[in-house]
Amino acid sequence: MTIKFAQSFDAERRRSLSIDLAIFSLIFAGFYGLLSLGRYWTSAAVPEVDISLSPWALPGYAFFSVARLFGAYFLSLIFAVVYGYVAATQPRVERVMIALLDILQSIPVLSFLPGVMLAMISLFPARQLGVELGSTLLIFTGQVWNMAFSFYTSMKSIPRELGEAGRVYHFSGWQRFIQLEMPSGVIGLLWNSMVSVAGGWFFLMACEMFPLGNRQFRLPGLGSYLQTAASAGDVRSIIWGITAMIVIIVATDQLLWRPLIAWSDKFKFEQVESNAHGGNPILRMLQRSRLAAAIGRVAGNALESIMLRIAKREAAQPADAREPSAWPARIAAAIVLGVVIFAALHAWEMLRGIAGHEWLSTLGHAGITLLRVNGTLLIASLWTIPAGVAIGFQPKLARIAQPLAQIAASVPATALFPIVLLGIIQLGGGLGIASILLMLLGTQWYILFNVIAGALAIPSELKEAGSVYHFNRTLRWRVIILPGIFPYLVTGLVTASGGAWNASIVAEYFHLKGQVFMTTGLGAQISQASDAGRFDILLLSTVVMSAMVVCINRLVWRPLYRLAESRYRLDA
Question: pTM for the full model?
Answer without folding.
Answer: 0.73
